[in-house]
Predict the structure of AAA+ ATPase domain-containing protein.
Amino acid sequence: MAALFSAAAAASVRCGIRALLRGVNRRGAAGLTGAQPPFLFLKPAASAGNHGRLPICSYSTEAPKDGKAGGPGAGGGGGGRKGGRNDWKSRLLQGDVPWDDKDFRYMLLTAGGVASLLLVLYLRDPGREITWKDFVHRYLDRGLVERLEVVNKQFVRVILVPGVDASEASYVWFNIGSVDTFERNLEAAHYELGLEPSRRAAVIYTSESDGSFLMSFIPTLLLIGFLLFTLRRGPMGGGMGGGRGGPFSMSESTAKMMKDSIDIKFKDVAGCEEAKVEIMEFVNFLKNPQQYQDLGAKIPKGAVLSGPPGTGKTLLAKATAGEANVPFITVNGSEFLEMFVGVGPARVRDMFVMARKNAPCILFIDEIDAVGRKRGGGNFGGQSEQENTLNQLLVEMDGFNTSTNVVVLAGTNRPDVLDPALMRPGRFDRQIYLGPPDIKGRASIFRVHLRPLKLDPNLDRDAIARKMAAATPGFTGADIANVCNEAALIAARHLNEFIGVKHFEQAIDRVIGGLEKKTQVLQPTEKKTVAYHEAGHAVVGWFLQHADPLLKVSIIPRGKGLGYAQYLPKEQYLYTREQLFDRMCMMLGGRVAEQVFFGKITTGAQDDLKKITQSAYAQIVQFGMSEKVGQVSFDLPRQGEMVLEKPYSEATAELIDEEVRNLVDRAFQRTLELVSEKREQVEMVGKRLLEKEVLDKADMVELLGPRPFEEKSTYEDFVEGTGSFEEDTSLPIGLKDWNQERGEIQEEPPASQEKLAA
């Protein structure tokens, strides 16, 4: 019987696998009719005829038509990294049973076990449930009962005498409430039927297991099976490390070796020429170390790329990976931290082992502040694990020697939180800061992002790049890329054939101000208040010398604001007290206009007041622009940062608050005087805004006359006196062939160098 079950299971599994691989969906119904007892019995069937015929599934053992052998080398279980986990399927379809493939054997054993269990369940004799009344009148009264088996004090199995009709089941069963009740009822039935003790059926009490205890082992068996599956698949996964790091391969480094699929080159990176030269020099260190060693120089161990978000740190690293002819390994700082203790240091070790094997190479750690934060911030579990990972990183970087030729680059937005031991020379020798690009850098970035765009043929790309660069002060590379993409989307939205200047202007408005909400309903009084509020900003800024020139003012709601004014800030890095004071007055123009024209104030100036307060505190606390507070500077807390104690006394804090209040009051009084003096101009601008909703600089000149101060608005005006109109992209003579290895024979020096030497 066991051999019969095994043969049937193997044949069923073989047929099922082949049918599944051929895409044939077959549904089989082996429903069990009738009620079933609450346990598993292994009873032989009444007759051998119930077994039916075994399923037949033939297969061929001929060689494949292409003449290739179907052995392990053809891609079975041991066919190498690419020998594939799925090659056994193709071999099976070709008629070759891949017994040598581990995956196939494991799957066959699993499927055989499941099929055997299902077959046993299907072929077992479940008996038939009856009632007490049927038992008494159909079996006990007719003398068909050989014995009664009380199983587990829950039900009674009625064993029938031999010779009962084959149509009847080999046994029947019925439930009992309790043994005492069953015994009383059975005794009463014997008395009613007049059965003498010699004719009464024997009662046997047994205890049998129904297999329910096996359910408690299922979670343990599943866990053991998962561990065995992981252990077996780890070395076969084809991934890096091949299961070296334990059952879950958690200690393996997640660093990736960048291949030639990176299509970003240095020509696609603009606005950070100095940083590009630094990165090129690092590649040149690895390609031509003799150029520096001849002069006694040592190759730097690494560099940190820092700066605000969107300035091109990761993009510069991608360009290095796409253009450097040395191996480039990249990893994210957060990938070192896991919930398991010890994973971070192990991954650091594994990463540097990979780097040493591929030396000379470049190792880039993005967002290194996730793992390189200053130590000593607490002794919690996560903090301790992060410190252990940092310690391992420090040891690995300091363990390099000059002959290793591995350069470590890192990117972060928060260099101030990095551990000093990580930033010291000998680990990260250089700190490369990538700030927002200047106007020349923005023009170069616009040229890069304008390449794939379908511009109007009548437009000059260089002219568009310069114009947009002048209109986007403070924009980073990511902002400029967003502007170019928004311009293309706007042109496509209106089914335009080309992208024009107006699309770029609308894109800049979209990026700065947010989504335009023309359908937002404003009450007439609210709309008038917004118009005079924006008119106050525009007029005050128009007549203040150090205020930014106005480009556009609108009362069409954008983003969270109900009004929108666009200015053109100057390209400057130093601000005087007078310049900051004029900016405060310009921001107060809206609130003062509301008070002058309506005699009441609204909540519309909340954002203006927030900026004014920040500016006032910065002047008093950070810039030392208060005579009473003195020439001191304290750090202001960052937004969302918790401050436990201030770096100054309570008396100084009260003095700072008083100075800030006096500064804001003086700005308010000056703005009130200016708005009262220019009341007619403010009213004209407010009425025109209610009519047109959007005013540009030409409309302001028409209403207010030319601005009484000199201002710069074009690209040429801004770059005048800087030496050139374009960004300097020339390379030092030692980096002309930065990406090529120099031969042992030195080339002859250029004629200019010969003359210089003479």
